[in-house]
């Protein structure tokens, strides 16, 4: 809560905090790091083309296993789709920090490390894990978990910024049939299966049982973004869901989809009103996407949900998890009981919902007058509370509110 006191203190202090935050925000840039080493230029180009670079920059405590240009040309000679290349390269991003020293100190000789591929939803079982072996004599080998042989050897350290990012040179591509497999066409994607397998089973079950599934599947071809509430949130909401008419249920589910593909970086840079799959006519079933630094929120007139993770992101389909069910004002009344106090105490549930200096700065398509009273914390009925963030997250929201007018970057401190 030190930050909170800061936030209420003099402007100079705020500036100091801000400077701190913005330097943290630029912890590393893989494109720039690799640009110093022309032998990895093809690998570097493909990190950009596949949009893996921003994913790498967003994370800390990672290791990028780079391969040189000749090894990359062998991979490219296979004429894989860009998605298969992305999967393959994401197997070369280890979700832990391994500098040269740590590689040579691996306890008991081997370590099993998750890769970015494991987080994509495209990696069945443990196909996204890499086994690092520290051999006697100082050699270090890399193998996919189910490989019989060592697939690649450690060559040298390229860049190290402990413990944020390590870039190492390895001799070969880690050859994964799973990663290289052609990705199913979007129309064949099993949306329900994908959501079920990643913490949104309750939502997926409701979805499967409704008419909405077909609408989503049809949109998956041209562009689709799904915000699926995590199981705790949708479970708590089930009594209300069951109370809706069949048409209401379909609209509610369709309200969780956008008829366009939005990558995480698009969500962050395209704030404003969005039409959903439930939208039928102007100002119906829409919501506001709003980011505050790295945090993206979806604001209906009834509830504000936070995007908590990326479950799938491959054009034309993106699926994100959110921490609350999106309740459209067309189906749920915004409770007028709470006053739109502009200065909420930090303990309040969601003070960030009060005045929003950043709102609608990009599109300005909503009527400001309609917002303030309804946007205030009105969704906190008992059912939703169970699905809410922890108290500490709520307090952090309070801190975010304090700095909201100064910089969205401040939110990074929360991560
Ligand atoms: C690691 O990242 C943090 C911010 O996330 C930054 O303050 C620090 O300087 C970075 N360390 C190195 C060695 O780059
Ligand atoms: C990273 O570095 C590259 C090359 O210097 C630059 O074009 C890009 O804008 C940088 N990205 C970020 C997020 O700063
Ligand atoms: C290393 O091996 C010893 C003996 O086999 C075992 O007790 C220990 O848990 C292992 N440590 C790690 C980190 O795997
Ligand atoms: C990792 O590789 C080493 C050496 O090839 C092997 O002995 C070990 O069983 C492997 N571990 C796993 C979990 O695959
Ligand atoms: C989709 O996945 C679910 C859960 O894994 C499974 O029950 C269902 O049969 C799958 N549907 C299709 C069309 O493959
Ligand atoms: C279901 O609807 C009835 C009638 O509108 C209402 O009284 C009841 O509170 C609703 N139940 C829930 C869980 O929303």
Automatic annotation (TrEMBL):
One CC-aspect GO term: plasma membrane
Signal peptide: 1-27
UniProt-listed PROSITE patterns: FAS1
A Pfam family matched in the record: Fasciclin
Membrane topology: Lipid-anchor; GPI-anchor
Biased composition (Acidic residues): 372-382
Biased composition (Basic and acidic residues): 347-356
Subcellular location: Cell membrane
Keywords (A to Z) from UniProt: Cell membrane, Glycoprotein, GPI-anchor, Lipoprotein, Membrane, Proteoglycan, Repeat, Signal
GO biological process: root development; shoot system development
Family: Belongs to the fasciclin-like AGP family.
Name of the protein in question: Fasciclin-like arabinogalactan protein 1
Protein's UniProt keywords contain Protein transport: no
Biological function: May be a cell surface adhesion protein.
Keyword Nucleus: no
FAS1 domain mapped to chain residues: 27-174, 187-326
InterPro entries xrefs: FAS1_dom_sf, FAS1_domain, Plant_FLA
